[in-house]
Amino acid sequence: MSSEGEILAAIITEEEERWVTGETIIFKAKNQEEKEKTAILVGRMLSAMVHELPSGVYVVVRH
Amino acid sequence: MKDYWAVIVLGTLMGTLARLLFLRVDYRQYPSYPHGYMTHLMLGFIASALGAVAIPALVEKDFAAVTFLALAAQQFRDIRGMERDTLASIEETELVSRGTAYIENIARVFEARNYLAMATAFIVSSILQLAPFSFTIRLLLAAGLGFIFIIILGRFMHWHKIGDIAEVLPSPLRFEGPNLFIDDIFITNVAIPKFREFILEYGRGALIKPKNDNGRAILSNTGQRKAIIHDCAAILGIRKDYHTPEFTPIAKRDLDTGKVGLAIVPMEPDIEIMIGIIKKVAVLESTQRMPLQTKAGRKAAD
């Protein structure tokens, strides 16, 4: 229930590139479908949660 | 010394019986392990024996023997430590953890129940030794009063339940974009549409509305909320594995009213049963707050 989290990665499509900056690992996807698939896979690999920001960027967060 | 055998044996028996009656394998599924059961029964037996020999020791003016009771208290404090360590060490392997407040509560109950066994044994042996009647009457009186004592203690040790301090209602889960809500309480953010559909299909939500300021204070404790979640997950099962944190049950609080929204994806999505379970969750001793007992709290409430 702790609200502390750690951002492990971000998953974006080409259009969302301008919303992301910094040192987080970024996975770029061809389209929305690939973005979702990548997000599921990365989330499962890291046992982490995928959140969606208002800009559409997916962030993988460990809580 | 032969005269005391009946006193010690009956006292020990009644004390052990008290421990046995309180050692229920209940819905919290603990201690459901045969070895844990055995450990506690034996410790209860030792506690009872200590309680039972106190009176004969006093009658024989062997005051040193009574100091053993202090030693016993030390031992029982170790029981609390033992339970805490066991539960804390398996915590990591639980999909839905109990939380430290719940563990502490369970450990404390185990300790207290040993004192209960000791007190029962002490009272039974006192009656059998000291009552001014014939042996048969004393025997019956001691056993009978022992039973009554166990029943009274059982009532006295009864704890409050969530149903006593709050109203529990079913409440549908709803997504606004990626954000999951119960009523108007934000629960979490789920990005993947597939997971949202899954949560909407199998997930269940409950709204826990505190009846007054005391209830509000109790529900604000995260340990209490973890206990509610743990009991729901333990009984209904949970559609979650360690790599799918999306389906982690969550209980979040409305900052205006103090009501709590609980979202869970159970194996058995029966909402009526879930509401019943939540109502029966124990109010943890360590989370009990009584702001309404104070003048300031009562004033602040209106």
The most extensive interface between chains reads: A-B, 15 and 20 residues
Structural class of chain B: alpha+beta
Helix content of chain B: 55-70%
Give the terminus-to-terminus CA distance of chain B: 66 Å
Helix content of chain A: 10-25%
How many alpha or pi helices of chain B?
A: 12
Tell how many strands the DSSP assignment of chain B holds. Answer: 7
Q: What kind of assembly state do the chains in view correspond to?
A: heterodimer
Q: Give unreliable regions of chain A as ranges.
A: none
Question: How many helices of chain A does DSSP assign?
Answer: 1
Biggest β-sheet strands, sense, barrel of chain A: 4 strands, mixed
Question: What structural category do the secondary elements of chain A indicate?
Answer: alpha+beta
Anisotropy-based shape of chain B: elongated
Number of strands of chain A: 4
Please report the distance between the alpha carbons of the first and last residues of chain A: 8 Å
Mean pLDDT metric of chain A: 88
**Strands of the biggest beta sheet of chain B: in what spatial order?**
1-5-7-6
Order of strands side by side in the largest beta sheet of chain A? 2-1-4-3
Largest sheet of chain B: 4 strands, antiparallel
